[in-house]
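Obj.: predict assembly geometry.
Materials: sequence records (below).
Method: joint structure prediction, all chains together.
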Amino acid sequence: MSGIQRGVFAIRIDRNYCKACGLCTAWCPQGVIVEDADLYPVTPGIANCINCKLCERHCPDFAIEVLPPEHPDHPSHASAG
Amino acid sequence: MPRFEVMHGNQAIAEGAIAAGCRFYAGYPITPSTEIAEILSDRLPEVDGVFVQMEDEIASMAAIIGASLGGTKSATATSGPGFSLMQENLGFAIGSEIPCVVINVQRVGPSTGLPTKAAQGDVMQARWGTHGDHPIIALSPGSVQDCFDLTVKAFEFSEKYRTPVIVLADAMVSALEERIAVPCAGELAVYERPRPTGSPQDYLPFAFTRGGVAPLAPFGEGYRYHVTGLLHDERGYPTEDSALASRWWDHMHSKIDDNLDDILLYEERHLEDAEVALIAYGGTAMAADRAVSLAREQGIRLGLLKLQTIWPFPEARVRALARACRRIIVPELNFGQLRAEIERVAAGATLVEGINKADGTQITPGEILEVVRRKTGPEA
Amino acid sequence: MNLQTSLIIRDYLRPAMLPTTWCPGCGLGIIMSSIAQAIHYQGLRKDDVAMISGIGCTGRMSGYMDFNSIHTTHGRAPAFATGLKMARPDMHVFVIMGDGDAMSIGGNHLLSAMRRNIDVTAIVVNNSIYGLTGGQTSPTTPRDSKTATARHRTFERAMELEVLARAAGAPFFARATVNHTASLTKLVERAMQISGFALIEVISNCHVLYGRMNDTPEAATMIAQMDVQTWRSTPALQKRAERAVRMTAAGAASVEPETVDGFEGMSSDQRKDRGVIIENKGSVGFSRRYHSLLEELRNDRRSGGE
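Observations (raw structure tokens):
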């Protein structure tokens, strides 16, 4: 992949697994992920996601996943099914 | 036809292990069991088996559990100090129901004690050495033939009931040379570990069956499961659910208690009309056996119950014997470890007395006979 | 190259066991993810992999992963692994230990397994503390730290795994951290290529106990610090690695006391090297040797038996 793409990635956060440890927020280099009032991660800046996966790789609880556009669970496929 | 060979007890144990299908041995040298390791280091590779000399007895016990999970019949041998070190992982094997055989050639303890002298001081350690309540099987060979036969039995029981089985030998039988019958290939019915046949998804490696056990799948053959020393559910996952814990205990105890007919091994001699009965096991049973012959020559109605299975304890047989005879005498090279158990079972139905020492010498037939005569004579 | 988290869960974990019992932000989950990815990229079948762990927070890892797994007794994992590997030589056996597990109660087993060169991939998670029991001093607690059993700070030296590996002759030693996750996965993969005892020390964080008592209560801060506490292995490091181990035994290389800086047997630079530190590609593990001996004996019997 050449060049950095933005605006096409989605982030899925599984609250059943997430322990609100803050690592994904700390590692996100683009300010995509922030903590909500309960300290759980939310992604208001998703348009800036560059798919670096630092959040996913640093998540100790398998709770966060960056979905590329081709991923079947990406929201762009939601109505297609 | 079996072939007859002269061998010593340690060799008979090693050959018994090979005959029973043992193909993995891990151990650490210790007197008076070392010959078992030396012989198996030679013999196992000849039959495609593995011998590993480990760094200590803790590791030896761990290694045989690992090998057993790989699907291989496994054993280790040691003596008192090493048996003490093995208690930790022995408990692991009991709790996670991994078949294996642990041979303890007893010497005088505590601690380093009298390393080359025979004793029978580990009877209660074999029963309760590891922490926590637990069932256990311990067999005590009372001859070189027993060393062979009971080692074969130990593997059978360990596989059948998925439990460690302790062969509680002693330096009397282990160093003794006798002519024994060794079955030829094909003559011995070797118990093979049953394998699961269902689908891996439905496999419950630790099923809480009453009176039995689930087949144990060898690692690497499609049944991926978890083994832990924590109290676990039927899949092997740790749990703190007390209802499950109670079902687990029921399974653990019943798999032994419901199969006593199979597990309890003993030999009787002249008990049918005995006024006085000896109860003996291990090397001391040889002296007791001779004492019976001498007593009978002198017209004394002495009999012998020779225990081969000491744990679980043959309560019913001992209780019946206590009701049938006037006196029970228990010679052991300790200060009454099994006698206390016999007294508990006899519950006052007869007099129970011991002949006891642990000074490195053995109890002779003469000593036993002397006690018997004193107790049965006119002045008794 | 990254394996999607949902695929790791689906293919390599036991979802029934999740979420883990580990504290929020604990590096153990990161390590578990890296091991799963390494196994995935190496293309191993799950049936052919065993995961053997000891006791402690780290000990729980084997239960979460969908392999043939044993959660053994404290410190004994290398010995269980030895038995399993010898019975199942074709299986890839992983040993997962904590620092107290590996270097304190299991020190003898670790040293002996390395000396014997049993064919396993061993991962020692070093978080400098006993976590599960509540933050007591471990063999790797840095000198001058506060712990639950050293309120007035520790004054013992920290045990150095690298030196143990060298002394016992491990054919592979690498150091990784939970900060550098891609490198961690690569190092596990590289260790898996070795025949013999391949050891990886993974620096992890116990911010909840060690951190809270020593001024770094945040997971993110503690993990970020690993970037300055460690540095990347260089060719110069490789040369250093070939130097004799500093020991007091007769004939061992002597060391000027002033270069030691209070850490006998350790680098005077307190930054720890990251990356592959020992790699002996020619190593032949104990199991491989033993089983080729058995093969020879089988052939002898076959030819002699005719």
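Conclusions so far: The longest strand of chain C covers residues 272-279.
To do: check interface contacts against the pulldown list.
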